[in-house]
Design a protein that fits this description.
Blueprint lengths: L6 H17 L2 H6 L8 H17 L17 H14 L5 H17 L2 H12 L5 E4 L15 E5 L2 E8 L10 E7 L10 E7 L5 E7 L5 E14 L3 E2 L5 H12 L5 H18 L1 E2 L2 E2 L4 H29 L6 H25 L17 H12 L6 H12 L7
Parallel strand pairs: 1-4
Antiparallel strand pairs: 2-3, 3-7, 4-5, 5-8, 6-7, 9-10
Helix pairs in contact: 1-4, 4-8, 5-6, 5-7, 8-9, 8-10, 9-10, 10-11, 10-12
Amino acid sequence: MEFRFSPEQEQFRMEVRDFLEREVPESWKALGYGVWEETDESWAITTAWNRKLGEKGWLSLTWPKEHGGQERPYFDQLILDEEMARIGTPSGIESAITIGWVCPTIMAFGSEAQKNLILPRASKGELYFCLGYSEPDAGSDLAAVQTTAVEDGDDFVVNGQKVWTTIGHRADYCWLVARTDLDAPKHKGLSMFIVDMKTPGIKVRPLINILGFHSFNEVFFDNVRISKENLVGKQNMGWYQLAMALDYERSGVGTPAAIRRMVNDLVQFCKKNKRNGTLLSEDPVIRTKLAKIAVDAEILRLMCYRVSSIQTKGNVPNYEASLTKVFASELLDRMANVGLDILGPFGQLDRGSKLAPFNGGFVRSFLQSPSMGVGGGTSEIQRNIIAMRGLGLPRQS
């Protein structure tokens, strides 16, 4: 693996930085929202921003040209993701779900009609997916889903419930896993579908998260009739498509850049603020904590580079993506805790208080960070994948 970027890649990085510093809207900077803090105002800003990226071809940088992409190398995508995380752009979970996770899987398994329906519009920021994965009794054991899709003539009839469906109230389509063979072993009776969220029989009910925002939802399917043309790939082979989509979900590269931004913010805070008459930046305990986080962020960055290197070779990262996922989730949690330790009691003040450092950003990171070890597969599941697929350890009975 080459650890240096080429002159062309460095030039692209400068192009991205110039664009972001010029174009990120001031209205977004004023909001200071995070991934799970979605409102009508932030959604309008985010979707407009994604359309702007789509106009430049940057939403689908690595995609084939026939699907609206530029066929750029994966390391160009890494550079773009790093720079957007570094500055904090409006692109969030909606873009990650649609562009990063669902669409690459549709490219691999979808029909030509499905690709033509979804990919050109997605590359322009004109449509969004939600994930129809988790259920009340199927989370970490995702193969235990009980939502059914029963054949009826030229259609499937879907019944069941999904939960924790991020942006289900905003999405145009649902990337749905459902059981199509009730008698098969649980991993062999699943299929994947593209479902229009406006289909009769779909009901979305909000779930308000700990930050007080409506990002999650319960989604109910009551005799929802969808065409067999909505089936992605082969019937009862959905587990393999789902697994690929999850590998894409776990291999994001923006986290280390976001953490470095948080570390830099804290360093500047420590240089300007005192405790007991001494600058925080001179406290050896605080210096050690920040140094450890900075080193771990660099480790995570290199782990993410490994994932991009695997993708560059035309392969899909598997246990490598799980490595980055579990390390990133736990590092975000440590980052939030260190931030509150350094900020002291003022760090607990939320947005709206004039005395809240960073407009309450760290207390919100603290409240949000535990969920990062759950979404996309819990840290326990990631460790199982690393053990079995990465280390070749036997499954424990």
